[in-house]
Design a protein that fits this description.
membrane; Alpha-D-Glucose-1,6-Bisphosphate, Chain A, domain 4; 297 residues; 9 helices; transmembrane helix; elongated; alpha+beta; transmembrane; 2 domains; single chain
């Protein structure tokens, strides 16, 4: 059963298996995204600004424990914003959208941004600061931006003597008639990629790590290289009659891309995973050089 003579049939089987894998994964993503890192109590709790949008199209509650007290975390929270301290996320995506290079991730606390005023924007001309309480919460909100409502709050809770629970609550209400499941899925997925990177960035900065995330050039190179291993394995599925091994490598490559995109492990783990995939693809490709294999063709 492992050997299939028709190249196009092998490719079709491989494509269908990949499609099923992606369908199962993508259908499970929204519920995981909406409450990432949050406990049941975190999700049920009421946070500043919740009353502004009582019936949102999208609601997130994300939680993260930071190994630093609230007073070490707060300075990084209060300076968040475009043309301020940044969002500690992927600036190449943010600047590609804004087209003005106004997103730069701060690597230090900037005194100039520690005392913003209500009405100052964290996203220019779109999302203003509503209110904040030092060391407790930071709320940005608009109830009508061209028909869209948006609230975003960062909430700090002391957890023991030397750690902090950061709870982020976001609500979005789509313009009238503008909400649909496909749009909501893309908002969920795309927004979460950026917020997950932000969570990493806040945590690593507050904990004083020397190379705070994201390290964009390296992460991009690893992501593209992993994509290439998947494409090469797809080519090997097409080329080799014993197609299950390259197909397995392709599935693992796809899973790795999803892990890099949504879970965002450390650079060390990304490099290890990519190295294993490269070795596996190389060993699989060497079978093409086997004279007996060529004779069979």
């Amino acid at each position: 059963m492992r050997r299939i003579e028709n190249k196009w049939l092998r490719l079709l089987y491989g494509f269908l298996i990949m499609l099923v894998f992606m369908g199962i994964t993508f259908s499970a993503l929204p519920s995981w995204i909406e409450t990432y890192g949050a406990s049941e109590n975190d999700v049920k709790a009421v946070y500043p600004g919740d009353e502004i949008i009582p019936e949102p199209s999208i609601i997130w509650t994300h939680g993260l424990t930071i190994a630093a007290p609230p007073e070490k975390v707060w300075p990084w929270i209060v300076q968040i914003g475009q043309s301020r301290g940044g969002f500690y996320s992927y600036t190449f995506i943010e600047n590609m959208i804004s087209q003005d290079q106004s997103y730069q991730n701060a690597s230090m606390v900037n005194p100039q941004f520690q005392h913003p005023q209500p009405g100052d924007f964290i996203i220019n001309n779109m999302l203003p600061i509503k209110e904040y309480k030092d060391g407790k919460y930071f709320l940005a909100a608009t109830d009508d931006f061209f028909g869209m409502g948006w609230t975003w709050s960062w909430n700090l809770q002391a957890s023991g003597s030397d750690s902090t629970r950061l709870i982020i609550r976001m609500k979005i209400k789509a313009p009238e008639g503008g909400s649909n499941p496909v749009m909501n899925w893309f908002l969920n997925a795309g927004g979460f990629v950026m917020e997950k990177a932000m969570l990493r960035g806040i945590k690593e900065r507050a904990e004083g790590q020397s190379l705070p995330s994201p390290i964009e050039p390296l992460e991009i190179v690893i992501w593209v290289a992993t994509l290439l291993t998947g494409l090469i394995s797809g080519w090997l599925v097409f080329r080799q009659k014993d197609w299950l091994l390259p197909l397995g490598i392709g599935v693992v490559s796809l899973a790795a891309l999803l892990v890099f995109t949504f879970i965002q492990p450390s650079l060390v783990w990304r490099i290890v995973i990519l190295s294993v995939l490269i070795i596996a693809v190389w060993q699989c490709a060497k079978r093409e050089e086997n004279p007996k294999e060529k004779e069979q063709k």
